[in-house]
Design brief:
The protein has two domains: 77 residues, Methyltransferase, Methionine Synthase (B12-binding Domains), Chain A, domain 1; 119 residues, Cobalamin-binding domain (Rossmann fold). 58% of the residues lie in helices and 10% in strands. It contains nine helices and five strands. Strands 2-1-3-4-5 form a five-stranded parallel beta sheet, sandwiched between helices. Strand 3, helix 7 and strand 4 form a beta-alpha-beta unit. Helix 1 runs antiparallel to helix 2 and helix 3 runs antiparallel to helix 4. It is elongated. The model has no long low-confidence stretch (mean pLDDT 91).
């Protein structure tokens, strides 16, 4: 049991999707539960991939390929998982602020966060502050993750955070921000938490939720 789960993790880290899918089916045929494959193989593999990126033994491209590989195996497991088997580490609401139509970085973060067990609700791009307020009230997320990829929309982000704070809807909410013009210093000045890339988004989310 341990051996095949370890092999699946290795295939995931290498981004070998077809092999991972094949071994996932083989593990199921051997009687290993979908939950065990998910938690003891796939999620562990993604965690290891993130650590290897931090150690600079994997590139961002490698990590994203690992995440795509995990998606393929999870697609096999999903119909077989029982209620509660899909462990969600926290609920994250994300979107690009008003005036910003860039979504590649945001979508990469979503892929990484979901691959690491987080539930992500995507508001899309060009999201007005009033719409963000509505989403927060509707979904009660643990973390709000905002993206701004150009300097003008970074200023919009600052105004958006202030608006939400004035409205009293983020008092108990952690806010993560990211994008090309952002820095740790700018994030702190807004009372938010900085994420430099898709891998660090997972690390920051875990830290904010004490996971």
């Amino acid at each position: 049991m341990e051996n095949i789960l370890e092999i699946i993790s290795e295939k995931l880290i290498k981004g070998e999707g077809e092999e991972a899918e094949k071994l996932t089916k083989e593990a199921l045929n051997k009687g290993i539960t979908p939950k065990d494959i998910l938690t003891d193989s796939l999620l562990k593999g993604m965690t290891k991939a993130g650590e290897m990126f931090k150690e600079k033994t994997l590139t961002m491209y490698d990590v994203l390929e690992a995440a795509k590989t995990m998606e393929k195996s999870v697609k096999i497991l999903k119909p077989l998982l029982k209620d509660g088997d899909m462990i969600k580490k926290g609920k994250i609401l994300t979107g690009s602020v008003q005036g910003d139509f860039h979504d590649i970085g945001k979508n990469l973060c979503i892929l990484m966060l979901e691959s690491n067990g987080f539930q992500v609700i995507d508001m899309g791009v060009d999201v007005p502050q009033e719409k963000i307020e509505e989403y927060i009230k509707k979904y009660s997320p643990d973390i709000l993750m905002l993206s701004a990829m150009i300097a003008p929309t970074m200023e919009v982000m600052k105004m958006t955070v202030k608006y939400l704070r004035d409205k009293g809807v983020i008092e108990n909410l952690k806010i993560m921000v990211g994008g090309a013009p952002l820095t740790e210093e700018i994030a702190v000045s807004m009372g938010t938490h900085y994420s430099a890339d898709a891998v660090s988004a997972v690390e920051v989310a875990r830290k904010l939720l004490n996971i």
